[in-house]
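Good morning C.,

I know you're traveling, so I'll keep this short. The sequence:
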Amino acid sequence: HILSIDDVYGGTGRLFRRCMAQMGVESSFIDMSTDPSSITNHLKSTTRLVWIETPTNPLLKLADIEHISTIVHKYNSKIMVLVDNTFATPYYQRPLELGVDLVLHSLTKYMNGHSDVLMGCLMMNDEALYKQLSFLQYAIGAVPSPFDCYLVNRGLKTLAVRMKQHMSSALRIAKYLEQHQYVERVIYPALESHPQHD
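The tokens, ready to paste straight into the viewer:
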């Protein structure tokens, strides 16, 4: 069983609802952004993975990574907690430091920065898990080309400056749109009107 945040990236939702279901893996989707403590009501004896995406795509919901990870591991230390950190990147958020087991990034987006490569990565602190996943990666041939790695490395060199500019520009645009007479609502966590704004 996989327990996932409800507002998950479309490709991930399809993977869980269609591909994993065909292999007999059940998936449940819940809102983890409002009451993280209620997550235990949705964990099952068969739960093996809790999938968090924060901020989510497309609604930018935020989840308390550390709180959820603590609750899940207290409930059953064998359940893995994974964070899809694609939108935040390590520049803004470091989930491994908040107690999760795995962090996933679509390197195609912010990390690469040029939309000219299709790649992802998994990060973890557990050496045994790393060896298992590394074996699987090589066994199925999911190894990126040297040139694709070069392209991602090129993007990483400018990640910090790009993320600062993204944040600055997005906030200016969001504030402008929030005041626009023809815009009903703007969903952006940095706006004070966002329900999860700090």
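Safe travels,
E.
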